[in-house]
Amino acid sequence: MLIAMSDHEINRFKVLTDVREKRLRQVDAADILNISTRHVRRLLNQLATYGAQSLAHAARGRPSNHRYNDCFRAEVLRIVREQYSDFSPTFALEKLSEYHNLSVSKETLRKWMIADGLWTPYSRRKPRVYQPRYRRDCLGELIQIDGSHHDWFEGRNDKCCLLVFIDDATGRLMNLRFSETESAFDYMLATQEYLSEHGKPIAFYSDKHSIFRVNQEKHKKVGQTQYGRVLNELGIELICANSSQAKGRVERANLTLQNRLVKEMRLQGINTIEDANAWLPYFIADCNRRFAKPAKFSKDMRRKVYESKQELDDIFSWQETRKLSKSLTFQYDKVIYLIEPTEENTRLAHEHVKILDYPNGEIAIVYGHRKLAFKTFDKLEHVQQPQIIDNKRLGQALKFAQQKQEEFEAQQQRTRSKKAPKRRTQKRVLKEQLRAINPVLTEPDTFKASSNKT
């Protein structure tokens, strides 16, 4: 008779055989098996009477006492086969409990469905095959965009993100821009640079980042992101890839840039984002000369930008709507805005206005095609009248003022609304504008007085 034994039981059989043949003492066997000598004698008696099968577990090979009835299993599989054949085990279990009042564990149902051929486990499924996709036919037909987070300055500066725009038809790098984060404002600035240099493409091809797509399908929430609104107003299609393999051209470009661009900046001695963004056009031209390929057809699908500079600035702003109160006021980002109560504006009570929040931090309020004049009242800035303090109470008053100042410093000057756009890009834009006017405004240490006397 064939006896199925575990490794533990086989080891026990060997030790007991050595004890029975006088090669090992019972005390030593008890230490090896971690049992008492009395139990060793009990096992020896069982081995002598019933043989090796007495060492195997008596329930081995028998069905469990807690198993489901065969009729119950057949009934469950019949219902699943007839009504839920394309359901996953978890989903099918929910419906069995909800509609049929049948209770069974999830793992048991999964094993039953696998044995019955109703479910294929992921480990047995064939891997998905991602076949290469042919390039588009013309330049400007499809632009792949992505953000690559990397230690671009090799520890000489903080880690940052490189926004990459690459043409699908030719593999040309159309635009590169370094930014501290991968935010909507950063993509807006990079896209505005792209449009000013290359014009409008047919479509942008991106991933499913929340900048490009509202990722709340399970909550049945639909809408449009700020970046999606910008492209919609410009007449540019935005396509989100279903996987990273689908936009493999820009993914491979990221790997190439992480190799070549890092070393080029090391040789050029570039250590800051500002210097890198100023030097990137030279790198793009050199990289395209080496690696870009001609398009299948010579037709250029890029379109001319007809919007004016002011129209583009308005489009590339963060836009939200607010409803005016009866007193022509509304709140945005913890600041109360007061519309100028002119004769024309008094008719706008309870009307909706559009707020344009520009990357440089400026705010504009638009109703229709007209921009409204306004004043602001910051609720977080408290202005107090000077207090008259008696001389004997001056020390206590100063102590109280110091405590309030410490609390103010701990809480910082203001706490912005979490729904408002991030301001890191705005600070960088302001710095770049000042640098374009005069580099001394951003780096006063570089100023050198002229030695010429007039």
From TrEMBL:
<feature type="domain" description="Integrase catalytic">
    <location>
        <begin position="128"/>
        <end position="310"/>
    </location>
</feature>
<dbReference type="InterPro" id="IPR009057">
    <property type="entry name" value="Homeodomain-like_sf"/>
</dbReference>
<dbReference type="InterPro" id="IPR047797">
    <property type="entry name" value="ISNCY_transpos"/>
</dbReference>
<feature type="region of interest" description="Disordered">
    <location>
        <begin position="406"/>
        <end position="435"/>
    </location>
</feature>
<dbReference type="InterPro" id="IPR012337">
    <property type="entry name" value="RNaseH-like_sf"/>
</dbReference>
<dbReference type="InterPro" id="IPR036397">
    <property type="entry name" value="RNaseH_sf"/>
</dbReference>
<protein>
    <submittedName>
        <fullName>Transposase</fullName>
    </submittedName>
</protein>
<feature type="compositionally biased region" description="Basic residues">
    <location>
        <begin position="415"/>
        <end position="428"/>
    </location>
</feature>
<dbReference type="InterPro" id="IPR001584">
    <property type="entry name" value="Integrase_cat-core"/>
</dbReference>
